[in-house]
Amino acid sequence: MAEDRGVLALLIVDGVLIGLVGLAFTPLYLGGVPAPLGVLLSVLVLPWLVLRAGEIDRRFAGAPVFAWFATMAVLGLFGPGGDALLTGSWQSLLLVVGGIGAGLWALQRVRDRPADRPPPPP
Quick one: which of 104, 6, 119 has its CA closest to 50? Predict the structure, then answer.
């Protein structure tokens, strides 16, 4: 049981780290072309974090998404030195909408799974 709490705590910390990396890599340009790699990372990793947290405890399955969103809100709007990391660009909007959408999709999968059925293999 204590091991499960530790893994759940690490999944929440991973949600924060994905938020940090997502904010850092979203305004990335390759040459003159925008390449929002932070969006791609968030959309791919957040559902995995939620599904793994749901395997440990269904009540806390959304915790990684909440940690990610809190990171987006705090650092995106009131970043280091008062700089806003979430700008008024389409990349920032895509990061927020994509991350929340992907996390909520995975949370819905956890909620729809019957409690007595084991989780699907990874």
Answer: 104
